[in-house]
Write a structure and sequence with these properties.
The protein is α+β, with helices and mostly antiparallel strands. The chain has helices spanning 2-35, 40-82, 142-146, and strands spanning 102-113, 116-127. The chain folds into two domains: 2-82, no CATH class; 102-146, no CATH class. The chain contains three helices and two strands; from the N terminus they run H-H-E-E-H. It has a two-stranded antiparallel sheet with strand order 1-2. Helix 1 (2-35) packs antiparallel against helix 2 (40-82). It starts with a helix and ends with a helix.
């Protein structure tokens, strides 16, 4: 949030500084022209080059803001790397030896929202080396079944 507050002030601040700078240059330029120390053509070319310099300086400010955004994002990513998972492996896990004959579901029920079943009394047997296609409407429970 601090970064967004600072970057929100960057554009108005740049305009304010540029406005004061242009006003100062115009004032000093008028004095130099009236006193004969500078010609109007020299002053016009100086003001033109000064105005051409404004856009690259503003782009540089936006680039610095972008770099700060990158550092904030990197900090958040590294915070995620440091998190310890809440789910841990049990002390004595059961090793699965592989599929012997079949995968079988008997009277399987599943619901994400209480009293709104996605799967209800599902019975399914898939033999080893058998290919099964699961098709159906969106929200019908295909991904839930496979997961």
């Amino acid at each position: 949030m601090s970064l967004y507050k600072r970057s929100g002030w960057m554009s108005p601040l740049m305009y304010l500084i540029a406005s004061f700078g242009i006003a100062t240059v115009l004032g000093v330029g008028t004095y130099l022209i009236n006193s004969g120390k500078m010609t109007a053509g020299s002053f016009a070319s100086f003001v033109t080059s000064l105005l051409l310099l404004y856009k690259p300086v503003k782009t540089l400010g936006n680039t610095l803001t972008g770099i700060q955004n990158i550092f904030v994002a990197m900090g958040r990513v590294f915070e995620l790397f440091d998190l310890k998972p809440e789910i841990t492996d049990c002390g004595n896990p059961i090793e699965l030896k592989g599929l012997n004959n079949k995968i079988e579901f008997k009277n399987v029920n599943f619901e994400y929202i209480e009293n709104h079943p996605v799967l209800k009394d599902l019975n399914l047997t898939v033999a080893k080396n058998e290919t099964l296609a699961v098709v159906g409407n969106s929200g019908g429970g295909k991904s839930t079944l496979v997961n």
